[in-house]
Amino acid sequence: MQIVVFNSSVSSNLLTIIARSINLKVMLVQILVGIFLYVNCLMILSFLKKEVFRDDTRYILFAQTLFADSAFMVLSDLLFIGAHYEYPIHLIPCIIMCTILNVLFVCTPLTLVAMCLERYVAICMPLRHADISTSRTRFRGLLIIWSISSIIPLFTLVAYLAVIPSGDLLSYTVCSVELMLRKDWQAQARAIFFLLLFLFMIIIIAFTYIKIMIAARGASSENKKLTNKGLRTVILHAVQLLLCLMQFLNPYVEMEFWKVDVMVFINVRYSNFIVFIIAPRCLSPLIYGLRDDKFFVVLRHYVLCGLDSLLPAMFSKWKIRPAKPQHSS
Q1: Domain made up of 38-311: CATH architecture
Q2: End-to-end CA, the chain
Q3: Each residue of 286-311: pLDDT tens digit?
Q4: CA distance 226 to 215
Q5: Confidence of residue 220 (pLDDT cuts 50, 70, 90)
Q6: C-alpha to C-alpha distance for 160 and 178, rounded to whole angstroms
Q7: Domain spans, the chain
Q8: Cα dihedral angle (228, 234, 240, 244), rounded to 10 degrees?
Q9: Does the entry feature the keyword Nucleotide-binding, yes or no (predicted)?
Q10: Whether the Cβ atoms of residue 38 and residue 71 lie closer than 8 Å to each other
Q11: Is 0.85 topped by the overall pTM?
């Protein structure tokens, strides 16, 4: 009897340690998400406050990336919390959230491809850049991005509604994106669509990288700096795209660990959320928010609450002037 009590006590302590570990990880994720959203909100504010940014294609695409990443992060975090605490919600809101999440998931890589193409036109065809980058072209480009982003999620939604019994729509469940893949053929078709789409995007990014690299070799010393900076931008976008592709493979990797051990599954899912969901979306502020001189000045102004314009005046006011030389009589 004492042995049973001892084992029960050890099991209870182990469950308490596991629960505390999970709560600590969830809290750390909330801190990272909060920092990410704060930085993104400051950048969106900087974009909206300056008209010069709203007339430039690269900044418009950058703002769309910030918006899509922020919305994706909020929805992903809600699903992450719900999955960890196994909180059931109504199936219809869950379907809507998962569909929007899938649209945003595809939108970000497509916008990165559009940004690479914009840099290709600006560097390799500078004389035609103003004619190509017009308001009409921007509108058509954004429309194409959102239309392509909606194809796979709408297919997943229609396929899910076709196989699910109508009575299940009124039920409650722990929400996850994998919930909408009830049949094997749905998951396989979705995987094929995603792989073809990402392969197409990787080809475009590789094309822009090669073209900009060729332009960098033949550029003059004055344009060399701008061309090399554009080349580094394309490389960073390629890294983002690779991380987004890995995010698509996460559910298949996690399910293999689910068959092995629950704690290993939780740790792998937590690591994947940090590395493949939060990290890629932190690169966009780095690429255009901190590396872009024009945008960085405006961002610094709002981070410092406008104090950056007062500091030079204060320093000039407090500057110690040299004493006048005294003449001997």
Answers
A1: Up-down Bundle (1.20)
A2: 108
A3: 766 677 777 777 777 777 776 655 55
A4: 11
A5: low
A6: 11
A7: 38-311
A8: -170
A9: no
A10: no
A11: no
